[in-house]
Amino acid sequence: MAGRGPAPKDNAVRRNTVDLSHLEGDEDVPDKLKKLFKRDAYSVATCRWWDTWVESDQAESCKTTDWMRLQMLAPLVEAYFRRPGHNALAEIRQNESLLGATITDRKRLRMGEKPEPGDGKDGSELPEGVADFELYKSPGGA
Fold this sequence. Notes:
The chain is 35% helix and 0% strand. With 142 residues, the chain is mainly alpha-helical.
């Protein structure tokens, strides 16, 4: 079965700091992008799909381009609900995956990970049994 590489070891320790600042919703997104364009033209199912995305936790990190992607995806979702087909569903699934639709997608995108300072996950502390190279540098060394 295809996947995204081998499963991580249970005792794996990340020693590098992961920059998650790109996941923060620091951009002011216009409210008009969060409203489904021409909502009256869509079925109840498509409106429910849209409302689910707007109310999701992922919406907090969505930027303008993400909302535009969802706006472009809405007609495809409508077409799928009117006449289901595997090609449309595959395209919807792929686009939703890029936006973090499932728990697997969110883990892959590292959404929701906010390491606390001092818990060892942010790289501030070394795991047990790992040498600190700062201790071994010479006083005038590199």
